[in-house]
Amino acid sequence: MMVAFFGVVIGVNLLMMRLAIQTLPGTDVDSAYAASLAYQKEIATAQAQSARNWKVDAHVERSGQGGATLQVEARDHDGRPMSGLKFQGRFERPTDRRADQQVTFAEVGIGIYRGRAEAIAPGQWDLVLEGVASGQRMFLSRNRVLLN
After folding, report:
1. Of 60, 69, 82, 148, which one has the greatest count of Cβ atoms within 10 A?
2. What percent of the chain has pLDDT over 70?
3. Domain that holds residue 118
4. InterPro entries this protein is in (predicted)?
């Protein structure tokens, strides 16, 4: 009986350990080492973005069916609307990456981009916006939003 007892305890521990290692919810990157190698490039990209002094405003509006419409207005350092950018967005759950949702944007006016997330649950989300021009990321923003 003693061997059976310890066998069951060890078996349950191994099962729980395996499940915990497989899921890994809440991590930002899969490999901290790979992320550290790209860190200097990210610093240079952030400095270049800061030097451009763009003003990008985002507004989230909830619909009655549980979706959300996201509108982005992009202006350059002189306050002129910027056209021709390609914006990409994501609603990321801070606690579980599996709930992340992509938002595809279309330019609906000069410097105004709009996208939609069809079914997004209420709660805290990280809104990640990326502006791309000529295949190069020109803008990156990450903000915490609370959706009702």
Report:
1. 82
2. 97
3. 54-147
4. FixH, FixH_proteobacterial
